[in-house]
Design goal:
The protein is an alpha/beta fold and 226 residues long. It contains nine helices and eight strands.
């Protein structure tokens, strides 16, 4: 069994990216209790559903006691190591205290470390010159692509397809022409559109007869600010 030990942070992509690139059987997340409570459900769901991870566990750590952190992490890692599992330390997005603990344990337990440069989508092996196993050389690759639905799930959200409109065509020719004209205007002046829309929202109100009215004081104020 291939086991990846990971720091659980608030940025989901950093928690999941190794398993999106390699076939990991089990993930053990080390983290602080409040972050575990906020990230646990979405992280576990994504790993099982899209990355084929069979087991996911979460281990709470102290915020500021290195010895206590080391004891908990060492016991957890040694348990997997004693079962002859291949173990890897993933320090992507790690916080300082956890990084120190990972570094100490990596040397003592002969566990290779790696991290991902998320923006470059690049694996960085921190023990590539050693004779020990590394995740890049010894673990089969996988590729989990992100689409909009998966990205939203990664963030803990869910698309409600029941709210989708069945008809998306504009069946009023006059309104369709107005939309085309408006789109052409926005496309031509795209860099000014947000400020113009804000001006319209702040200055214009509808009168009793649905006529568009404008408050002169607001126009004067807006002109002074431009």
């Amino acid at each position: 069994m291939t086991v990846n030990f990971e720091f659980l942070g608030m940025e989901p992509i950093e928690n999941l990216i190794t398993c999106m690139h390699f076939k990991i059987d089990k993930v053990v997340f080390f983290g602080y209790n409040e972050i575990i409570q906020s990230q646990k459900a979405s992280a576990e769901s994504f790993l099982r559903k899209y990355c084929g991870v069979e087991q996911v566990s979460f281990v709470s750590l102290s915020h500021n006691h290195l010895d206590a952190v080391l004891d908990v992490m060492r016991n957890t890692v040694e348990k997997e190591k004693n079962e002859n599992h291949d173990i890897f330390f993933d320090i992507t997005g790690g916080e300082s205290l956890i990084l120190v603990a990972f570094g100490i344990l990596s040397k003592g337990l002969d566990a290779p470390m790696h991290m991902y440069d998320v923006e470059a989508d690049e694996l960085i092996e921190l023990n590539e010159n050693s004779k020990r196993k590394t995740i890049g050389k010894n673990v089969p690759e996988r590729k989990v692509n992100l689409d909009l639905n998966r990205y939203i799930e990664m963030k803990g959200g869910l698309i409600n397809n029941d709210l989708h409109k069945n008809t998306k065509e504009i069946d009023n020719e006059d309104f369709a022409r107005d939309v085309d004209v408006l789109f052409g205007f926005v496309k031509k002046h795209i860099t000014l559109w947000h400020s113009f829309a804000g001006f319209m929202r702040n200055c214009f109100v509808f009168g009793e007869d649905c006529m568009v009215c404008v408050e002169a004081a607001k126009i004067r104020t807006a002109l002074r600010e431009t």
